[in-house]
Amino acid sequence: MIELSHLTKVYGGIAVVNDVNMTIEAGTLTVIVGTSGSGKSTLLRMVNRLIEPTKGSVFIEGRDVSMLPAYELRRSIGYAIQNHGLFPHWTVARNIATVPMLLGWDRKKVDARVEELMELFQLDHEQFAGRYPHELSGGQQQRVGVARAMAAKPALLLMDEPFGALDPIIRAKAQADLKAIQRRTGTTILLVTHDMAEAVHLGDRIAVMDAGHLKQYAPAADILARPADAFVDDLIGTVDRPFHYLTLGTVGSAVEPGEADGAPLNADASLYEGLGALLWSGRKTAPVVDAAGAPLGRVSLDTIADRAARPQ
Amino acid sequence: MIRDMIRPGNLLRLAVFGALLAFLLAPDRFAGLLAPLTSNGAPPIYHQSSLIDLTLSHLFTVAVSTLAAAVVAIGLAIFVTRPAGAEFLALSRAVVNIGQTFPPVAVLALSVPAMGFGEAPTRMALFLYGLLPIFENTLVGLSTLPPAVMETASAMGMTGRQRLLKVELPLAMPLILEGLRLSAVIGLATATIGSTVAAKGLGEVIVAGLLSGNLAFIVQGGVITGVLAVLLSDGFQAVARYAAKKGGARPQTGA
Predict the structure, then answer these.
(1) Which end of chain A is more exposed for a tag (fewer CB within 10 A), N or C?
(2) From chain B, which residues contact A within 8 Å (Cβ)?
(3) Backbone angles phi, psi at A163, to 5 degrees
(4) pLDDT at B248
């Protein structure tokens, strides 16, 4: 559990982070969303003390982070950023091994961990271990950056716009991978983004920041249904709101008995994907199957439309 | 590896080095070549000291002073790029610049009374003259590192010292080597003036030629120095290329 208590950072008389209080449950993925200059990155950097707060404290598992030497604290917290910050003079394997080496793990254990992570992030060990960062594509660099951040099995991972430099297709894949890896490892993740769609898609809870203030901190569905103020409302975007809402539910949750024609939809696809498939194929209903391909019933345009409406 | 070594550029380097070595080991064989530059039956080859001894002592003087300049200049550049030393940046720049603007001849003239004749004043002059290129290059190398890389180095939990040794210096190495190259090459040429205060070096041959009006002496002293400078410069560039290649292409800052 991470607790931010009255966290404040003042630069030149202006509070870029202003009295933020937040509790982040262990094992969750929390997204901090806001426009540029909202203080979201400053907030993130105060957790591992890249920036020292002017006032307030950060507690991880009840311990004040300012009690530890900064370098020791940082070795226990993963960190990944938009421009990945890979060390250009080190190979992929050496980059991933950074924190384990700093912690003095023995060689065998480090090598085994590097191999394990490269497999987790779908980087062929034989092919990529000896390459230098500039010999990788943007998507591969990003994966190495996240693998490096997770190398020493940190309980907490901080990410600042980790997918910002990726093209949309690779980005969607990277988001899905991160979510899967997070579920598997149980790592607590604190991720900063300016993209509301990304926040809704990834976040168990979303924190909305504006001008240094924490405007709203709630599960995605609550933020969409009951934005705290005009700013949050704006950030969601009036036009996009129903569609954001649909990304939260699965086709499986809207199944009704009955039959339908045409290509079936997967039960674990999002309602948003279901809507797209129905609209594009010009159907009013589609059959739904589970992961094994067994029929579950059907889903209709009307049901999906109901689910996109503002909850009463 | 073998194929790398027989590229035309390397063959040329090898040929030049071979020719230089042949001349230094047996200069008399080349007497016929230099004879047309002499008049009145003056000797075409300098024989007061052995050319190879002069060359080695010339190189040694340059090596010692460049090394000393490197230690001081790199140390200073590291110090002023740390938070604790930042306020000394302007001062260090001024001091190092004075070292460069003060003519080596003047340094010789001033240091002979204090240090006596011989190698010491020459080393002093070359040391002062060599500080600036190394300092400035190291400074640029250390202060233009990609911010994302620097931030993650800290965020991974490197201490200041680890960051310097594992990340900053290796990434700045191509520029530092370039500074060393400049200093060494300038030093090699400048060291010839040391002979005016009785330092052993190739300047001795040139000065002897000037005093006796023997063009052959001037040419052999000048050409040996020149060829050494080219080979040295070339060698440094090869090492710098290797360092840059090993370090991967240095990413542009920003973006």
Answers:
(1) C
(2) 146, 148-149, 151-159, 162, 167, 170-171, 246-251, 255
(3) -110, 10
(4) 54
Q: Which of A71, A75, A102, A131 to mutate to test the interface with B (most CBs of B within 10 A)?
A: A71
Mean predicted confidence (pLDDT) in B38-51: 83
At residue B254, does pLDDT exceed 70? no
Average pLDDT over residues A209-229: 91
Residue of chain A with shortest Cα separation from B160:
A71
A213, amino acid identity: H
- Residues in chain B within 8 Å Cβ distance of A86: 149, 152
Query: What is the tens place of the pLDDT at every residue in B82-111?
Result: 988 888 888 888 888 887 788 888 888 888
What pLDDT does B255 receive? 30
Any chain B CB within 8 A of the CB of A164? no
Cβ atoms < 10 Å from Cβ of A211: 16
Q: How distant is the Cα of B241 from the closest Cα of chain A, in angstroms? A: 13
What burial class does residue A5 get, using C-beta atoms within 10 Å of its C-beta: 0-12 exposed, 13-18 middle, 19+ buried?
middle
Task: Please give, rounded to a whole number of angstroms, the shortest distance from the CA of B209 to a CA of chain A.
Answer: 50
Q: Distance (Å) from the C-alpha of residue B235 to the closest C-alpha of chain A?
A: 22
Superfamily of domain B48-247: MetI-like (1.10.3720.10)
Interface probe, candidates B144, B149, B152, B163, chain A, greatest A C-beta count within 10 A: B152
Q: Are A79 and B251 inside 8 Å of each other by CB?
A: no
Query: What are A173-215's pLDDT values in tens digits?
Result: 889 889 988 988 999 999 999 998 899 989 999 999 999 999 9
Global pTM value? 0.82
What is the H or E stretch that residue A127 is in? helix A125-128
Rounded distance, CA B49 to CA B53, Å? 7
Residue B161, pLDDT > 90, answer: yes
Contact at CB, B146 and A85, closer than 8 angstroms: yes
- pLDDT (0 to 100) of residue B253: 35
What are the CA-CA distances from residue A279 to residues A145, A261, A273 (Å)?
38, 14, 10
Instruction: Please give the Cα distance from A284 to A260 (Å, whole number).
Output: 9
pLDDT of B99: 77
pLDDT of residue A165: 81
